[in-house]
Amino acid sequence: MGVGILVEDLNAWYGSTHTLQDINLHIPANHATALIGPSGCGKSTFVRCLNRMHETNPIARATGTVKMGEIDIYNDASPVEIRRRVGMVFQRPNPFPTMSIYDNVVSGLKLNGFRNRRILDETVERSLKQAALWEEVKDDLKKKSGASLSGGQQQRMCIARALAVDPEVLLMDEPASALDPVSTSKIEDLIFQLKSQYTIVIVTHNMQQAARVAENTGFFLNGKMVEFDSTHKIFTNPRDKRTEDYITGRFG
Amino acid sequence: MPPSRMTTERESGSSMPVPSPMPVTPPSVSMEETSPASGSGAPSAIRTYLNQRGSGRLADNSFAAVMLICACSIFAIVLFVFTILVLRSHLSLVQFGWRFFTRSAWDPVAGDFGALAFIYGTLATSILALILAVPLALGVAVFITELCPRPLRAPISFLTELLAAIPSVVYGLWAVFVLVPLMRDVIGPFLSKTLGWTGFFEGPNFGVGLLTASIILSIMILPIISSLTRDIMMAVPNSQREAVLALGATKWEMIRIGVLRNSRIGIVGAIMLGLGRALGETMAVTMVIGNHPEISKSLFAPGYTLASVIANEFSEATGDLYLSALIQIGLALFLVTIVVNAIARLMVWAVTRGAPARVS
Amino acid sequence: MSTQPLGIPPTRPMDFQTKTMRLNNLRRNIANYVVSSLAVIATILVIIPLVAILFYLIYKGASSLNLAFFTHLPAPVGESGGGMANAIVGSGIILTLASLIGVPIGIAAGVYLAEFGRGRMLANAIRFTADVLNGVPSIVMGIAVFALLVQGRHFSAFSGGVVLGIMMIPTITRTTEEMLATVPHAIREAALGLGVPKWRTVMSVSLRTASPGIITGCMLAFARVAGETAPLLFTAFGNQFWSFRLNEPIAALPLQIFVYATGPYDEWHRLAWAGALVLIVLIMVSVTLVRIFANRGVLKGGS
Description:
With 252 residues, chain A is α/β, with parallel strands linked by helices. Chain A is 36% helix and 25% strand.
């Protein structure tokens, strides 16, 4: 089940570049929230701050508070513990090339020492069904390598991998941008099915996609969050002129 | 242009109604939003398991520390070799000092040691080997990178790699039974007949000597110079080659102006690496150089290199001073090869800009 | 747009074939052909010794390769027959010890350079030092280990293993680092994003993906030290008999070849050729396997 995310005064830097400035927002639980904005506006950086992935870069740092449910993710827990609660799907599918489909999906469990065979089998089935990939691969789970699937299938497998650890939040950084339209629409269907069970944050540069899948949308520009409101309101009657300019395609 | 109608509702029969506007809720709203409406409240077995796993910080730090220690072992090895060589050559260092390298006496019985003859032997064979090897190595490198037809490229470069893989003692074995007779019976007489007037080919020729050692040494350092030169030439971007060709240059001019001129420094570095290898080469040289400490202009004369004297006399060295003198020679060899290699690597790096260096 | 002529008097077309130009072109073309021929000649001249050595080895050595060679000890001086069994086994023991020392430390150092030290000054210094260390003559390493482990004690297989192991470390470090650098960063991120701790990511994802290349690097280092003679001259020292104790002198194939090749007996020379053939075959098989392995590894594991 999902938890809500509360962000207070989040600032982030890459070296000396101030990439995020004073972000404040509340992402409600069990809903899908889209983050839109032109390239380089900081939406990916923001999402990576939510599971402390930006810390993998040695010159990155962040200040402020991010609370996931009851937990202050920067002060109450280690990055590793946080990342176990948060699933992440990246822009390009990144399956583990040396592992089978089965091992890929449960890698989050196996690499953390989980050994119960029965639960692993159940998890593989559950996750692949959630990701709408089960029917296509159920006969080749251990025979085929994760990298041998098509692009769209790989991404759905990565989604299954993220879901297998039963996360509370699912972060998706432009999950369909590298895929063909058919795979894209399959993934959008997925998000629509999943959002009632998880809190989903999806970064997208495709406004129509945001409109299709998310209840709330936040508009980022130059490291600041300009506006955050229900998707319907953002796209029909935005408060800020900059939002309106972006929506109508005047820039970005 | 008016914004196109964007729907917030899916056609594919979802059970969710059109979502009512969700304003940004102020922070005062309750934080525990584990929606009880949509399912079981108890966390799954997986969640429980993962939540109780530790942060792994201790394991991470220990792992990183172990890796760091192993990486620093490289420094440790260099320091260890230097320190122990200095320590154990102490006797000789104290007795002879720097003049050790300018005296040519080598009399173990009398306890009189000087390394000049060996320095001469090492330098003479190395430089001669370079003179023989460098043109050939460059020729091969140019051939493989620029002139060779595609299908032949892999086999020929594979063959040069095989040359590098042959151990020194096997080269020595071949040199003793093939090259030495060849030198004695064919090449030697030919050289003294044609070039005897230069004074380099005088005296009796028994097949062993500086020239033979130089020849086998040149065969041995050739693969290094050649493969490194090849890497450097391949690091020159194609745009350079095309620019020169577009001006109407012939193939050779393109190579000379477009490639070699750009990689001059790197090629010098490759040659220095070959020199470094030649200076320290032991077994093959020992087997054909004659092992006699003398300084002579004639290339037919036997000689002795720094590495050879250590190889031959170390295990029979009686007396601490003797051993210490030999270790001092080892120290000199160590320092010289380190300096030559360091300079060479810097030059090669300057051209290939940190692309992975060929390990050879 | 008028179709009338421009009214400019027609000029003579440029003459690209004046006499000086023609001579110049001829000179340049000749230079081109000469240099190309020289390059081809150079290549042939280089291939000749290789072919000659291999041919001679097979010619001289193959006839002496019988079962006795692989199973018997060296015969007493002057007698015929005998073999190099103890040298082959001795080399095996020394190389095993060397690998036990060199492979773990080398891989760990390579892991540090690739996974923990990226861009840091220390890592650059270590990388540079490793390359320079590769160029130190093996006999100098032999002296150093002699001074540490043999002087005051006795020659031993252990010291032979140590010196060869130390020589393997820089090579394995560099090849491990290179291979780990080919692992795409995206899959490291995938593992970290799942909450896998860094050490586990390195072991189960990075190393696992790069393992074909890393094994290749180890085999390369192994082949290189397998033929080394100089450092063993005063560490392992050689032995005419069987030896399985680590603190006794032990025979090694390259050592034995050296002793026999420089000895006075024809019988010894015959055995030296046979030993050299065995050594060369082993090394060439490793180098060829490395080539095959490396190609497959790149296609399979990495990108």
